[in-house]
Write a structure and sequence with these properties.
Number of domains: 1
Strand order of the largest sheet: 3-4-5
Radius of gyration: 17 Å
Largest sheet: 3 strands, antiparallel
Mean pLDDT: 93
Length: about 80
């Protein structure tokens, strides 16, 4: 999830897995896979950086969990 700001100042959180494209026209517009569009104050680069950081955090957490969590087992 990434935090973004609408043009009128309201903050919201967007699931980065839903982002289809990010465009600068002239404001930054994010289009999701279901066709919704969000115009935000952040630059295209800032949105890309937020998406990248969020995905990297998930991968890093998965690696930590793989080495520190007990293995899963089937309970019958």
């Amino acid at each position: 999830m990434i935090y973004l700001t609408r043009l009128h100042g309201e903050q919201f959180v967007l699931n980065e897995d839903c982002v289809e494209r990010i465009e600068q026209r002239p404001d930054t517009t994010i289009t999701t896979v279901d066709g919704h569009c969000y115009t935000v104050t952040e630059s295209v680069g800032a949105v890309v950086d937020a998406v990248t950081a969020s995905k990297a955090a998930v991968v890093a957490l998965a690696k930590v969990m793989a080495t520190t969590s007990p293995p899963l087992r089937v309970v019958e």
